[in-house]
Amino acid sequence: MVAEQSGEIVKVAGPLVIARGLPDPRMYDLVRVGPSRLMGEIIELRGENASVQVYEETGGLGPGDPVFPTGGALSVELGPGLIESVYDGVQRPLDLIRESEGNFITRGVEMPGLDRAREWEFVPVAAEGDQVEEGDILGTVQETPVVEHRLMVPPGLGGRVESISGGTHRVTDTVAVISTERGDVEVGMFQSWPVRRARPYRDKRSPRRQLVTGQRVIDTLFPLAMGGTACIPGPFGSGKTVVQHAIAKWANADIILFIGCGERGNEMTDVLLEFPELIDPYSGEPLTKRTVLIANTSNMPVAAREASVYTGVTIAEYYRDMGYNVALQADSTSRWAEALREISGRLEEMPGEEGYPAYLGTRLAAFYERAGYATCLGSDKRTGSITVVGSVSPPGGDLSEPVTQATLRVVKVFWGLEDRLAFRRHFPAINWLISYSQYLEEIEKRWSEDINDDFKQMRSEAMSVLQREAELEEIVRLIGVEALSPGERLVMETAKSVREDFLQQNAFDEIDAYSSLRKQYLLLKLVMTFGLEARKALEEGADILEIIRHPLRERIASAKYVREDDLEELEALTGEVVRAMKQVAEGVPGREAVVPDSAAKKERERVEKIFETY
Amino acid sequence: MAIKEYLTVREIVGPLLLVEEVEGAKYGELVEVQFPDGSIGMGNVLEVSTDKVLVQSFEDTRGLSIGSTRIRFKGRAMELPVSRDILGRVFDGLGNPIDGGPEIIPDRRLDINGNPINPYARDYPSDFIQTGVSAIDGLNPLVRGQKLPVFSASGLPHSRLAAQVARQSAVLGREEEFSVVFGAMGITFEEADYFINEFRKTAAIERSVLFMNLANDPAMERIATPRMALTAAEYLAFDLDMHVLVILTDMTYYCEALREVSAARKEVPGRRGYPGYLYTDLATLYERAGRIKGAKGSITQIPILTMPEDDKTHPIPDLTGYITEGQIILSRELHRRAVYPPIDVLPSLSRLKEKGIGEGKTREDHSNLSNQLFSAYARGKEAKELAVILGESALTEEDKQFARFSEEFEEQFIKQGEFENRTIDFTLALGWDLLKLLPRQELKRVKQDQIERYMKQSEE
Ligand SMILES: Nc1ncnc2c1ncn2[C@@H]1O[C@H](COP(=O)(O)OP(=O)(O)OP(=O)(O)O)[C@@H](O)[C@H]1O
Ligand SMILES: [Mg+2]
User: Fold this and answer.
1) Domain A7-72's class?
2) Atom of ligand 1 nearest to the CA of B352
3) Ligand 1 touching residue A297 (CB < 6 A)
4) Distance separating alpha carbons of residues B57 and B46, to the nearest angstrom
5) Where are the domains of chain A?
6) What tens digit of pLDDT does each residue of A436-466 get?
7) Which one of A52, B112, B194, B236 has the fewest beta carbons within 10 angstroms of its own beta carbon?
8) Nearest Cβ partner for B290 among A60, A265, A270
């Protein structure tokens, strides 16, 4: 090998290596460590010493081993071929690695993120002689049946298109030459971008459109906006991953970026095997055709885990820049924070709370800040967005721990999962009393146009019923159910119906897995109509038990299994509920005789009060 | 390369040795520590800088002296020699035979740290394993390639349960038998002896490999033991195409050994003194389970841990639960009431359940039935708790039926004999039978036609 100027290892402590003698080392420069040239990144400089976090197992390295500079920062390759890829935390394609290395991941594999051999059909949009600025679209490549890949003028570049060549190209080919103030610049099919630097955009706006996930408790109660941020904290087994997978499957985003960050290998396999089989309800194509997967599982090196979220969000930004709505899921951000903690510990930095570095909060905030709804670079002023949903795995389910707290300070939506609900097999186990969405108001406004005027009303009624239930449950626990008045019992029953017939959603049921917003509305309407009409019947003096045990309730319970094509059945059923409750009321013989006047009045007042919040 | 010997130990702190003026040592390298009395222990390199090396000794450091301890660097990581002949053998926690048999003539020597399975190479676990235990098969089924730990507590019969599962496990419709790899960390001689006898009695010993680190063996050795066991398992599964069941017990002692090293290194502790990297460390063990596309063999893991103070939020069970694919939790209360196996089914979970059961695997009604049993049992237990506070009379008629159901469920469904091997059909029929105690209209999680079909069937 040509005598490259290299440094030399002076210390190895787990994933951290200290090197000396590197020529002009810079922070966050990429280096190659040891004889097998493992990837590493400089994260601290002290005098002559450079601390390097190594993205692979460091076993077998020792003092005296060489460290080679690369001159660049840790970067990802951005170009056609990202979609449908499966990468590790530093963009190495796991499928190709398996082909060349076998079933187990070995060290020192060097492989580019984009396939060099694959050919793409490039269709120019710009023409020779056009004036272009940064972000302008030069041409397109049909990356998958659903994703039109837009090749853009890289940030910082602008000028006159000297030449542009359509036709079949590989990613390494030059497709256009732009003459700029600094001379002619060749633009290829791909650009590299350092992962720790956010890609530029024109300006940010506040998120407004709803990211519909098809999950009822999310979309109706605590909705997320395109370009927004959300977190899902919850103890183990409470359903974080299932929610994340559901969003990846059903969200109305153009591009999905799923980052398995320090979690299970089998969960990645699940996505890999299932997504090609599932059809995207919006495009009719397999879900893989819009998905990029990053899999840095818990047993893979921690430093690469730390990098994985940046690799992911940089790819997301690239598609946002094309004008797409991207949904990014990071499962789990706690594992990323732990990687940060481990490296910080090896650097012997002063620890903050629970050993996490003092900069945990800043790093988390900076990561979530890369989400957003933005006007992109480019003269057409197109818009794009990145929605970020991060799971958080608090030790012992205790939300007061540092990662959860730091996350809650920056995200706008909080879906709090609870093991108590999971034990009762109430899924998704999102606690409706503690969760919130700060996008609710903005999104509700659109419901009246897109769905129905009374959706908003219906939602708030459902929330009050649930709230009342929590209060009444206290009473039941102390005195027993007999202590409740018929009106109160009806509130409990209505709340139960909201929980079981609306909120509970089986992610593994073919039909129930996804509900359109319209279906959500109709289902909620059905459930709430029962509550409302039953209250009227009760006021007419009907027997609470007759209401509770009404046979129609079984059909309300199975209404969630109505197919998207048959939604009129839900409306019909709602009509039946109204009629049935009328019949129940009419069937009451001389109610005055059953309930003495004053008692009836009192009861009515009482019921009224309970439903006041309605 | 000639192996150099060093007499330059400068510090001995707990299990750690600081050696100076060393040349060419590598991170993770295997080290021989020669005691003043001539005996030899093993260790490995935890940290290495230009002239200093931090060595962790697997042997108890009692008897070591600064002046006369000899250190030899082996130029390789710790390895396990493997060949087909490891089957039927008993080794110590570091992989040395202790059954009086011959040394293993190795086919290969494998680095005990292994390499991560490429997520792209994995195949999803989906073959139902019939363990013959209703509380597992019916409600929290084990699937081939799964890692399903048992969260136990001191004094509970986790060993008996693990032995029963190892004895009875079979995949429906197939003849192949599991080989069992058993890794003992810090358990008592009695417990270990129980397992060995169990395996002997059933002749399972011939397809077993045992690694034994007992309570009176060096605590630090425990850090290597599960890696030895898993390396053997990977060899059997992916080189010899066997289906392997790995039992690791007790993970709590393993974690305590890690904590000891971390404390000696004066690392900033995470929760309750356990190192911040405990999650990652455990993951490098538990993730060594699974199936690989195109491979015939598989690794199924049942790690056992005892929860300190019966506390599920203690870092050991907590972090384990965050890595494994579910958990079987044992309950002291059930044990007190003489219910064996005392499986607390509600907080127990098998995350691979949906993929492992149903039509063509077990039976079409399995999933719905188990959901129904779950929710009915949960409701019954709630009713019983209410009755404790408010008295039986505060319950509605229905609640009383549910309360009664939950009692029968514990007595008949959860409770069974230690040597009782129930078929899945028997388990499911038992479930249907118990549901008869409840009003039909309350059975919302099972389908009407399933009620007709299976409830009737069990009436005959
Ligand atoms: N919507 C749902 N429908 C049906 N079952 C669900 C749903 N959500 C969760 N579950 C059940 O809960 C189990 C655990 O869910 P999941 O794996 O998402 O938990 P988690 O919070 O990600 O846990 P960990 O932190 O350990 O990764 C699933 O395997 C499944 O059995
Ligand atoms: Mg998860």
Assistant:
1) mainly beta
2) 29
3) no
4) 10
5) 7-72, 86-103+112-191, 203-438, 455-608
6) 999 999 999 999 989 999 999 999 999 999 9
7) B194
8) A265
CA-to-CA distance for A285 and A428, rounded, in angstroms?
26
Question: Distances in Å between the alpha carbon of A449 and those of A210, A366, A443, A454, A567?
Answer: 13, 35, 11, 10, 19
Nearest to B325 by CA among B350, B345, B344, B293: B350
Atom 4 (ligand 1) nearest CA:
A506
Specify the ligand 1 atom closest to the Cα of A234: 21
Sorted by sequence, the CB contacts under 8 Å of residue A608 that are 6+ apart come out as none
CATH label, A203-438, candidates 3.40.50.10860, 3.40.50.300, 3.40.50.720, 3.40.640.10: 3.40.50.300
Distance, CA of A41 to CA of B58 (rounded, Å):
33
Residues paired with residue B129 on neighbouring β-strands, in sequence order? B142, B171
Contact between A104 and B269 using a beta-carbon 8 Å cutoff:
no
Please tell me the distance from the alpha carbon of residue A192 to that of residue A281, in angstroms, as a whole number. 33
Number of neighbours of residue A23 by Cβ within 10 angstroms: 10
CB count in 10 Å sphere of residue A197 = 13
A329 in contact with ligand 1, CB cutoff 6 A: no
Nearest to A262 by CA among A227, A218, A320, A309: A309
Averages of pLDDT over runs of 10 residues in chain B (460 residues) are 82 94 93 93 94 93 91 94 95 94 94 94 93 96 96 94 89 77 94 89 85 93 96 96 94 95 88 90 96 94 95 94 96 95 95 90 93 92 88 84 96 96 96 94 85 76
Q: Running along chain A, 614 residues long, what does each successive block of 10 average in pLDDT? A: 75 94 92 93 93 93 94 94 95 94 90 94 95 96 96 95 95 95 93 95 94 97 97 94 95 96 92 89 90 94 93 97 97 94 89 91 96 96 97 94 96 95 91 96 92 93 96 84 88 95 92 95 96 93 89 91 94 95 78 46 55 49
**Architecture category of domain A86-103+112-191 in CATH:** Beta Barrel (2.40)
Q: Are A561 and A552 in contact (CB under 8 A)?
A: no
Cis, peptide link before residue B393, omega less than 30° from 0: no
**Residue A481 contacts B, CB cutoff 8 Å:** yes
Burial B394-409 (b: 16+ CB within 10 A, else e): bbeeebbbbbebbeeb
Q: Is the CATH number of domain A455-608 3.40.250.10?
A: no
Pairing status of strand A255-261 against strand A291-296: parallel
Of B27, B123, B313, the CB nearest to A58: B27
A397 contact B CB<8A = yes
Q: Which burial class, exposed, middle or buried, applies to B366 when counting CB atoms under 10 A from its CB (0-12, 13-18, 19+)?
A: buried
In sequence order, what DSSP letters do the residues of B164-208 get, joined into one string? HHHHH-EETT--PPPEEEEEEEEE-HHHHHHHHHHHHHTTGGGGE
B-chain residues within 8 Å CB-CB of A19? Answer: none
Q: Ligand 1 in contact with A237 (CB < 6 A)?
A: yes
Phi, psi dihedral angles at B208 (to 5 degrees): -120, 155
CB–CB contact B318 A395 (8 Å): yes
